Amino acid sequence: MQALLTMLLLSVIVFGLSRLSGDPVNLMAPMEASAEDIERIRASLGLDKPLIVQYWYFVTNALQGDFGRSIKWDRSAAEMLIERFPATLWLSLASMLLGLALALPVGIYSAVKRDTWFDSAGKIVALLGQSMPTFWFGILLILFFSLWFGLLPTSGYGLDEHIILPTVTLGLFVAAAIMRVTRSAMLDALEADYVRTARAKGVPEWRVIMVHALKNGAIPILTITALQAATILRGAVVTETVFAWPGVGKIAIDAVYGRDFPLVQASVLFMGVIFLVVNFVVDMLYVLLDPRISYIKR
Amino acid sequence: MTDALSRRTRLPMLIAASALALCFGLPAQAEPKGEVTMALPQLSQLFDPTAMVGATPHMDFDFLFDGLINLGKDGKYPALAESWVISPDGKQIDFKLRKGVKFHNGDPFTAEDVKFTFERLMQPDSGHAYRAGFVESLERVDVVDPHTARFVLKQPFPAFFTTARYALTPIAPKAYYEKVGKQGFQDKPIGTGPFTLAGIKSGEWTKYEASPNYWGGAPTIKTVTQILVKEPFTRYAMLERGEADIVAGLTGPLLEKSRGNADVGIVTSRYSGTSGIMFNKDLFPQAADKRVRLAVGHAINRKAIAEKIQGGVCEPATSMFTPGTFGYLDGLPQIAYDPAKAKALLKEAGVKPGTKVTFTLHTQSFAAVPNAPQVLEAVAGNLEAVGFTVERVSVDNSAWLAMMRGNKPTAIFYTPISIPDDGGEVINSYFVSWSGWTARSVQVPEYDRIFKTQIRTANLDEREKILQGFAKLESENVENVPLLWCHTPFAMTKKRIKEWQPALGSGYHTSMSKLRLK
C-alpha cells in the first residue's frame, strides 16, 4: 500500500515537474512557426488539454503499460526503456559487486587495524571516491586507460571489456560510501561486550570479526548498500552519458534536455519502481539479519 | 560564394542539366566497401520527410532521400529534377524529372511521388516544420506526365530554389508510403537516396548501407554508422583510438588538440551558421539610438572570440548574410573592435557607465554558433568592459525558444541562424516589423518593403540585387550588430579517410556518399 502511494506521489511529482520545466513544442517547432502551427503541434501531442486531463490520461495509460511515444524518437517510451533496462541492470550489478568487493574487506580491515597506515589510506580512498564528480572520474579513466595506455575501449556496450571503465567509475563511488560505514559499524561492534566475551572464551579472532562483529554491524552496512543502489541509478545517468552506455540513464538525460515528456515520465517512474523494489528487498533482509525486526503486527 | 545553383539559375529561366549536375551524376566505378563510424553530439531518427520537424532530420534525410534539388560541397545542384522552366509570370514551374531513378524497393520514381510529397506536407495535420511557407506560395502540384511535375503557384516562389528548407525537400515514395502508412514508413523508410537504412537502435545509433543502384553512382563506402555520444571528450577519445572515423561537435581545447594531431584532419561545413546581436528596445530604449548599437559593435572583440574560443571555426561577420547566403554583398565594412570608441559613443548618446542591461546566456549550442555559452559569456564580458552592468539570463534551448517566441528577449540578445542560405529568410527572421523574434524592435518600413518585393521577384538576378540593397542599408542602420560566421567543424581520421567534404552552408548535410577511404 505504501509502495502504491509512493508511486502515485512520484507520478504527480514527475508529471508536474516535467510540465514546469518547459514546453517541448518550442523545441519541435521551427523558428518561423506561426502561433497556429505551434497550437497544432501542441494539440497533436495532447498538450492543449487541461493539466488534470493530461494527468488522468498519463496515469490510466501508464497503468496499462502505455507511456506514450517518445516525441524525439517516435517510438514507444515503454519499449525503449525495456530495451535499455538490461544495460543499466548489468552496469548497476557490476558496480555494486565491485563496490562491495572493495568496500567490505577494506572497511573491515580498517576497523580492525584502526589508526594504522592502512586505516589512513582507506580513509583517503573513501574521501576521494566520495568527492570526485562521477563524470570527471570517468573522463580521467578514459584518458588513462583508453588514450594513454590503450588498454580499454572508450565507450560502447558489451559485457566484455566495454563494461570495465563504467563499472570502475560507478563502483568506486559506491565503494567509498560503503567503506566508510563498514568501518564505523565494525568499530562499534568490535568494542561491544559480546565481542569481548567471545574473545575471552577463546573464539578465534577471524571468527570474532567475521561472525560475531560483522553480523551485528551488518544492519547499517545493508542500509548504506541499499542507499547506494539509488546512488548507482543516479550515477548511471552521468556514467552512461560519458561512456555512451545505452542504458536508461542515458536516454533519460537526453529526454530531459529534449523535453521529451513521455520518455522523462516513463524513465523516472521506471527508476522509482526499481528503487522501491530494492528497498523492499532490503527490508526483508533486515528481518533475516535481525530477528528483533518484524513487519507483522502482533 | 553564393551556391552553384543560384548562380546558374539567374540568367536563363530554362535550366538544363548542367556540367555540375553531370559531375554529381557520374557513376562511381568501384563497388562500395569499407565502414565509416561517426560519433555525433546529436542524432535524428525521424524519417518521414512529409512530417519534417526542422533542419536536424537532414542528418538522416541526406542518406535516404533526394530532393528535386540536393546540397553538396559546392552548394545546391539539380537532383531528381534535371531541369525546370519557370513561366514568365513566375506562377508556374515545370520540373523535368530524372528518368530511370528507382526507390530502394525497386518502385520507379515519377511525378506522382513529387505531387504526393508536396501535397501531403501541406496538409494541416502533416506536422511539417516549413508547411506555412509552402502553403503561402504553392497552390498544388500537377502531374503533366510521369516525368514532368508542375508547381501551380499562388505567387512567385523564388525562395524555393535558394532556401534549403524548400529546395531540399526529400521526395517520399507515394505507393510505398500509402501502403505502409505513416508509422510503417517511420519504421522502414525508403527513398531514392545513396544509402538504405540497415539498422537502428532508437536514441543510440543508426546504420546506413550503400545503395548499389543509386542514380548518382553508388557511394564508395559500404556502411556508415552514426552513434550518439554526448560527451565531447569521449568523442575525441573515440577518434584518437580509431573507434570513430568522424567526430562532430568538437570546440575549444579539444578542437585545438585535434588540430595538433597529425593523424586528424579538420573539415568544415562552410558558412553553416551566422549570428548577430540585437536589442529589445522596450527594455533598453537607448538602443533606438544608432550610436548605442554601434558602440556595442565596437565593444565586441569578434576576432579574439573566433580565434580563442571558437578555435578558428568562426570568423568575424560583416553582416547577417554570409558569403554563402543568396543576396550576400561583398565588401561591407566590419565594425572594428575599439572599446575606447565604444565608450565615447555611449557617452555621446547619454548612456551612463553602470547602465544595467539584461543579456541572454544560452547554455546549449546551436549549429549556428558552436560553443555558444562561452561565446556569449565573452560578449557579456566585452559589454561590461565598456561600462554596462550586465545581468546574465541563462536559458537552455527550450527556455530560449520560449523566451524568443514569447517576444520577451533580454535587453541585448543574440540572433543565431543555422543554414543561412537565403537572404529573404534572414530578413524574415530578424528584420521585418512583424518578426516574432525581436520583440518588434525593428520597425524600418523600408525593410518590410524590401522583404515583400523580393519574395515576389521571380527573376533571381533582380532578387539578388534587392537583397544586396538590404544588406547595404542594414550595414548603415546597424539594427543588428553582426557577430560571427561559423563553419561546422568535423574532425576525421586521416589514417583511413582519403577525401571528404561536407556540404556548403549546412552542418546537417554530410554528403557521405562522396567520402573516399584510403
Give an account of the 3D structure.
The complex is a heterodimer of chains A (298) and B (518). With 298 residues, chain A is mainly alpha-helical. Chain A has two domains: 2-63, no CATH class; 89-257, MetI-like fold. Chain A is 76% helix and 0% strand. Chain A has helices at residues 2-20, 24-28, 35-44, 51-63, 77-112, 117-131, 134-148, 164-190, 193-200, 205-242, 248-257, 261-289. In chain A, helix 6 packs across helix 8 (164-190). Chain A is globular. The model of chain A has no long low-confidence stretch (mean pLDDT 86). Chain B has 518 residues and is α+β, with helices and mostly antiparallel strands. Chain B folds into two domains: 10-18 and 27-226 and 496-517, Periplasmic binding protein-like II (D-Maltodextrin-Binding Protein, domain 2); 271-487, Dipeptide-binding Protein, domain 3 (Roll), CATH 3.10.105.10. Chain B is built from 18 helices and 19 strands. In chain B, a hairpin with a 2-residue loop joins strand 2 (69-72) and strand 3 (75-78). In chain B, helix 11 runs antiparallel to helix 13 (339-348). Mean pLDDT of chain B is 90; it is low at 6-28. Chains A and B meet through helix 2, helix 3, helix 7 and helix 11 of A and helix 5, helix 9, helix 15 and helix 16 of B.
